[in-house]
What we know:
single chain; alpha/beta; TIM Barrel; two-stranded antiparallel ribbon; globular
Amino acid sequence: xxxSSFLYFAAFGVKAILFRRKAPILGTIIVTDKCNLHCKHxxxxxxxxxxxxxxxxxxxxxxLYHMGVRILFFCGGETFLWRDGRRTLRDLVTEAKAxxxxxxxxVTNGTFPMDLPEADLILLSLDGDRQHHNEIRGDTYDSIMKxxxxxxxxxxxxxxxxxxxxxxxxxxxxxxxxxxxHVRAVSFNFHTPYPDTAELSLSREEKARxxxxxxxxxxxxAPVFNLxxxxxxxxxxxxxxxxxxxxVMENGTLSTCGRCIHVPGLCDxxxxxxxxxYTLLFRGNPKIILEMLQTYLKYI
Length: 300
């Protein structure tokens, strides 16, 4: 992370903590909900299958930038499916950088070539070892690993949603993150139980065991891009929601925190690690502040 970016984020954090500011710093733009997969745990793919045009996304970028957002994610659906004429995802990333966003990340299922060195991070979904990942996402594990090996930059962060199918695969994904070329880290979430996927959610006891495994892997040197100090809050679902410092833009509609805010009762069962981490950070939790400084400076 550039020193100027660090200073900007530090100043934002101080103002948010001292003055309880609810202005956003992190924004996500859904460029399409079209996806080439139909994953068992996903409730938001191929609802419209519309690929939003470049000028619309550019206007949404401008809106988020003027709101104060400086960390931008492009998300889907499958993000690498996005194109508008000759424009591809690379054009969106470079436009965002030119506009002034300090960190620009992309979320993907990893089934397309990883040729996007312009992105700060490519968050790539890997949901277990070969058997369990393929059970969730179809026969894609081998092609994803091939794409990781062929990546053109060391900017990949694996991204695992822990659920009833893959809850025993945390160690496998941590070892992959540690050993695979071009992979910088791994980030975890617990499954957030949309009504059609509620059977995949974890109990408190299962979450505790998962956090114990993640913590052990941290001790063993796995590059985990999460904050251990937030684990007790995630296990008990006792962190404040929604996160007012995060917003999502989809087809002109702005949502605080995420799309799940529109599903009654779902915020109370939130499994997103970053929501716990950010809300606790901006409440001034000293352990979270210290650990976030160490983690973000290490992996971004």
